[in-house]
Design a protein that fits this description.
Layout lengths: L8 H12 L4 H7 L6 H41 L22 H15 L3 E2 L5 E3 H4 L19 E3 L5 E4 L4 H13 L5 E10 L11 E11 L4 H16 L5 E8 L2 E10 L16 E10 L1 H6 L8 E8 H9 L12 H4 L4
Parallel strand pairs: 1-5
Antiparallel strand pairs: 2-4, 3-4, 5-6, 6-10, 7-8, 8-9, 9-10
Helix pairs in contact: 1-3, 4-9
Bound molecules: zinc ion.
Zinc ion (ZN) binds next to loops.
Amino acid sequence: MTIRALTSIEALREAEPAITGKRSILSTLQRSLGSLEPSVRRDAGAELQDARRVIEEALEARRGELANAARSQALAADRLELGDVVVQNVRCPVDAGHPSLIASTQRHLEDVFVAMGFRVSEGPEVESDWYNFEALNIPPAHPARGLWDTFYVELGEPETVVLRTHTSPTQIHLMESAVRTNSLPVHAVMPGRCYRRDTPDARHLATFHQIEGLVVDRGITFADLAGVIETFTQAFFGPDISSRLRPGFFPFTEPSAEFEITCTICHGEGCRTCSQTGWIELGGCGMLDPAVLAAVGIDAEVWSGFAFGFGIDRCAQMRHQISDMRALIENDVRFLRQFS
Ligand SMILES: [Zn+2]
């Protein structure tokens, strides 16, 4: 048996008496030294003493190795491995929530337009009559004002203040700023909250959200407008949904068009939602009226452009087939949780 074959402290302790103990061969030999001739006794005694020292050192070294190994083994057994600890049924004590469907739809729309080269711009929700109507070619007696009947705030002469009825006033702010800072052209989209004195029903809300687009540049044509509308439609609603333009009227664009997209419910087949036409109206658009450009001091001989706008709430409604728009603002968590 070799010392190396002893693989535990206990085995070493048990084997030790047989190796160096009183009844071991080594001790027996040392005891028999007295029977030797005096001439060889001394050398034999010294050799046996050396042998005992070597054996005892080897035993001590092996004892150290085995103690270290035992300690490492104990440490390894105590170590926690990934997966050793399983925590079950832990719930966040506070419901973190998520953006509302309107906010997430707005962000998605912004992403689509930013990818097309537009920048995002915001304007005030409280506007003067001039920005909300007159600068957009809607003077006080204009019949179009009837379409935008709104919440007026009387602050006394000379200015009447309104909760903006559309995001179009932001276009005027943007164009004025571009003229002031000599930074034309403009390619921007303007999302935001708007207000009208509507009685809420399945398709109308008194507070709603719009996004408008504005391009003022050299050599812009109606084809550019149609291309932007079609690119946006496919990017937002999917490649099987397309757009078409129909003649329309808006005081601040000429010519004007209403744009429709393939019905997202029947995909063009015809259904009750689209009155069997296969198309759903989404918004309005048109080439900027030279009178609007003139109102902000842009030379219509050099610059031209287009604008478009549509409802963010309407987009969310069509994308998710929501039958009643009032669900968007009622804060019923059973409705909201569907869009987390
Ligand atoms: Zn349909």
